């Protein structure tokens, strides 16, 4: 499989290059040259198989020519052995026709583990074949950082620099990132928003001088490896519900559009889906876009679902590319204009294609809390605020009769105990992996939201990694 850039001016790239560069040289995002196709009987045949087997079947075409089948199978099995005994993506009935797809049974209790555990192993495999160090740079609104730190810590041939907005993530999320105790992980608190952090990462990843001597990549959802791995659970969930005969609605709590774009990828591979409901909190750029065709960044508001406090959904560029006839030059123009003005008007055609498949709902903090309380009263189950945004969106969306609704449950409630308590006066049980964090020392640097200063810090870490490598 070869990969194209959404901005149309980069050479075709192989899988290894795509993972290790994250952003294409023309500033675009990578997508497969052609979407592989899952036949109807293949989809039906996935029901009842293990998650690792399904992942191999769905993902193999994306690594074709880059990784041998046996080796890929082992990497996948190893990645998903880190999940608890509930499995990687169990489907739980919430009420009649309403399902939660629980994606939080990995080591850091949020859905980011599903992709990150596999991506880190793929990167380690690539690093083993190369002589220089691999520097991974990322920004996090909470859960990406924890999942990346957990997946990368102690792995050979790679360092991780992770930025997060100071004071805007939960204590638990911060501790999950800062108590790693590993020498190859560097966590930086930035005085700014998540979008500031993400902009700094983009500026570092596209810094020609830094890239000359070092393999530099990102593990945000702009990395194709993340998106790819997330396609799998849409397919397994639909298969379990009876696809291709059944066409579920998927409701996806959304920040950077990575998770829901993976769902779109599953559709392009042939998965029958009735509709996606994009569930946003008060940071509703995507909900406004679906309603109006007008994509305009606003101010970021802190909410009870911080992993979705985002106003520039990076992966939206991938969808734009797909619904604009894969016209890279047009996307390049649009994104340049968006960078300058913060506004982007979709063509009627592109907006129509999006509106055919996507619905969107905005859920504020008050409704998030009511929903956590309602679900607790109805079922005795505690859900986290991100999942609650999904449930609230699902309950207000138009759904055809007899169509199962699958809400992606993206975090364990114990990661957001304060919001859960406010809603229900009950605290979720704390899993042992979180309880242990309280007593561990934290390691974190604090820097201003200044790309030049952060770039300097990254350079320093690269220098140290090189010294280590040559000793
Ligand atoms: C990252 C995250 C999201 C948003 O996912 P995107 O891929 O950015 O849309 C939602 N919920 C939780 C708990 C998350 O960690």
Characterization of this structure:
With 471 residues, this protein is of the alpha/beta class. It has a domain at 91-109 and 225-424: Rossmann fold (3-Layer(aba) Sandwich). 46% of the residues lie in helices and 15% in strands. It is built from 20 helices and 15 strands. A six-stranded mixed sheet has the order 3-4-14-9-10-13, with helices on both faces. β3 (91-95) and β4 form a beta hairpin. α5 (112-128) runs parallel beside α6, α10 packs across α11 (258-268) and α16 (365-379) crosses α17. The longest helix has 19 residues, at 451-469. It is globular. The two termini are 37 Å apart. The structure holds pyridoxal-5'-phosphate (PLP). Residues 110, 112, 142-143, 221, 253-259, 307-308, 386, 410-411 line the site of pyridoxal-5'-phosphate. Pyridoxal-5'-phosphate is lined by residues 110, 112, 142-143, 221, 253-259, 307-308, 386, 410-411.
What characteristics describe this protein?
471 residues; alpha/beta; Rossmann fold; six-stranded mixed beta sheet; five-stranded parallel beta sheet; 20 helices; 15 strands; 46% helix; globular; binds pyridoxal-5'-phosphate
